Amino acid sequence: MLRYTLRRLLGAIPTVLLVIVLAFIMVRAAPGGPFDAERALSPDVEANIARYYNLDESLPRQFFRYLGGVLQGDLGPSYRYRDTTVSELIADHLPVSMMIGGMAMLLAIIVGVALGIMAALNRTAITDRVVMGFAMLGISVPVFVLAPVFMLFLSVKLQWLPAGWSSTPGPSKYVLPVISLALPQIAYIARLSRASLIDVLSSDFIRTARAQGLSQGSIVRYHALKPAMLPVLSYMGPAIAVILTGSVVIEEIFGIPGVGQFFVRGALNRDYTLVLGIVIFYAVLIVLLNLIVDLLYGLIDPRIRARR
Amino acid sequence: MSLLEVDTLSVRYPGVVAVDGLTFSIDRGESLGLVGESGSGKTQTAMAIMGLLPADAEVEGDIRVDGRSLLSLDDAALNRVRALEISMVFQDPMQALNPFVRIGDQIARILLEHRLAAGDDASGKVVDMLDRVGLPDPERQYRAYPHQLSGGMRQRAMIAAALITDPALLIADEPTTALDVTVQAQILDLLEELRDDTALLLITHDLGVVAGHCERMLVLDRGRKLEEGPTRTLFVSPDHPHTRTMIDAAPRLGARQPPDPRMSETILIADQVDVIYPEDQLQAVHSTDLILKAGETLALVGESGSGKSSLVRAILGLVTPAAGDVEFDGIALPPDVRRRKPADLKRMSMVFQDPVGSLNPQMRVRDIVGEPIGSSRHSSVSATLARVGLDDSFSDRYPHQLSGGQAQRVAIARAIITQPRVLVCDEAVAALDGTVRQQIIDLLMSIQRETGLAIIFIAHDLAIVEGLSHRVMVMYLGRPVEIATARDLFSRPGHPYTRALVDAVPEPDPLSNKYSFVRGETPSPIAPPLGCAFHPRCEHAIARCRVELPKPREVDNRTIACHRYEELRTEVESSPN
Q: Which chain A residue lies closest to B163 (C-alpha atoms)?
């Protein structure tokens, strides 16, 4: 288990490196720079700033200088937010992003799995149709459509929930962002766990359990649930990535001061170090969370455990 | 009143009649064999009795246990009947046991569900049952997962699960078909020993199994009962010609004379081949030689883990051997198939076990057969199809439109269209019904007579091998233990393992009471025993066998790897029979 974990961590190094290289190239390929403003700076000032931030060096040199910093845990200073490092920005604004992302994930798993099981066990009944119809809708409608519609109806028209973030003190401000973020995931997980449970229920060992006179409830609880949850668990890796990207949109729409919002602003302002820092942070986060998912996989499936 | 009464039972699916007006009964403690080829409706009958048919099945007639109709029961009542009165053993224990749940917990669940025991009492009962079915160290096996057990041990656990409620009727659906030959006999014996007054409905395609284990038998054909009666009577004087054909087609030793050995030049040599799978940390083949002569059939026999398939894959270049050479016509071939020249590839081809599965489902027969020569329109495609007994009407069909036998003919056509000199048949007839099997074997033999093709025939069933092979090589745990002409090998098996294989063939004759079988199962190739790999199962093993690996020696026209061959030879010859 320990050897497997170490091997996986070593294997992730090229992935993260590739992400850094690509992000570096792409951010630099965008036209403009961090210190372009509406009013042009004098050439002297521009050269001074460039020298201060080492932007006058060749791109490869800049890259290796940056990489050297990253390896030492230094994501560099933000170009836009003066006197603030990227690490500080992430540390300050991460908790609210994590809160929303984590709650959305939890909600998606609990509600998605429950709906999936209900649908799988009532395949001919109306439950299945309703759940699957809802799931189809949830997958088809993107977050950036869903969130404003929610806001319009639930906050503005009905005034059930707050629309603003900074003006609301209580936890009620979390409700809409979390639901908007979770809904597509609920839909996807419901479909996934439905299909998986139906598949498991048709396997030979379930036939054996039926031949042993076990009731439908016992069969699901003791024989089918564990194997049926494996595909859901595998989906957790990609789901984390989707939630993270989704949070970028959600934070912008609801005006939440999270990492996602800074990411968007950083990209628009060509705040190179901020964009790169968040990309690297998220890449490492996704790699780690995927590793955790794979380790959990081994806990559920004894055959995989044996192979490690 | 009988224990089980099946009364004009019909099972229909849209467009198909699986069981057609079947009537039979089983008394308490009786054993009935339900025999038929694939598609005869025997499993459908069992599923109907258990109430396990799929939703689109339409059931007519009646099934009664102790006079009570099962078809009108509600789920709760049916569940009680399933566990407490009828239980079932399935074909493939790997599939039929839950891979995610410990063996003991799966069995204990039955007791808990039906409130037959609770807590420690339940686990105690399960451990006792595991002990009774012969699982060594039952407390430890209780906590094992199915994949940690060997095939035979898994089937023993399955039997433990079936008998733990002490049911009145046990249905066993091909309980030994997925197991190794030497394990088959053990499992059948165990069923016989443990069932006491439990009645047995044994479903099988293997007449040898029925002959040795059932008082009565019932022959099914396309969903209908052909005939029913005491097993002995039916074997001696069956009323129906189809029963006769099935009995005659059942593989039995001594039924067919092995062909004369071929005296021809050697075309293929495998020299000191090692096959290692580093991923699985095991060595599948240990410094093994193989010699194949032009026009001969060499049978490669052994159970799972014997290394027979790995050896052949190394010869074909499908796995790269860790050591050793493969020579064709005296010229060494590159070990990796991707580095072999097209001309080399055309000289060897292969036919696989699963006839339909080994054909691309999206290709027509004509394209499948024409693929190796790069043209499906070539005249040789229809000529080759004709050679394997398929007329032109087959060339536009897809694999799923073929029967098992027809699909295997297509696979043979694809293999011989390049006019190879060596054909490898990997369990090529194992998945076919008795009557079809013999047709395919006859076809292979006639192609060999015409073209001088050399055949490597991998099989686990000695009775099939006997009639078609010139020479036989028996392998055990990655090494050859005996190589001899089929005549010598079958008239006088030299190695104790060869003898065990011969003894394990179920005789399709109710009067034969041959009942000796080797104990244990093939150990895992990950940790093979020291000395002679067979010694833990060998009744003749002495101290030397436990420490010293027997080298293959040339004695009496055969190659044999047994320290005690000479002593045992005289022992066998001086014994009264």
A: A212
What residues of B are in contact with residue A226 (Cβ under 8 Å)? 100-101
Residue B52 is nearest to which of A211, A214, A302, comparing CB atoms?
Answer: A211
The dihedral region occupied by B289, where left means phi > 0, alpha psi between -120 and 50, and beta the remainder, is: beta
Q: What are the sequence ranges of the domains in chain A?
A: 92-258
Contacts of B576 (CB under 8 A, 6+ apart): none
- As a whole number of angstroms, the distance between CA B341 and CA B526 comes to 35
Q: Do B95 and A216 touch (CB under 8 A)?
A: no
Domains of chain B plus CATH, in order, are 4-249 (3.40.50.300), 266-360+418-574 (3.40.50.300)
Interface pTM, i.e. ipTM: 0.83
Q: What element of type H or E holds B120?
A: helix B119-132
Distance CA B35, CA B246 (A): 10
pLDDT tens digits for A154-187? 877 877 777 777 777 777 788 888 988 999 999 9
- Nearest-CB residue to A208 (from B96, B100, B148): B96
Tell me: domain A92-258, CATH 1.10.10.410, correct?
no
- Token pair in block for residue B361: 């489902």
- Measured between alpha carbons, how far is A256 from A265 in angstroms, rounded to an integer? 13
Cβ-based contacts of A222 with chain B (< 8 Å): 101, 105, 109
Helices A126-140/A86-121 angle, 10° precision: 150
Chain segment B402-456, per-residue pLDDT in tens: 988 999 999 999 999 999 999 999 999 888 888 888 899 999 999 999 999 999 9
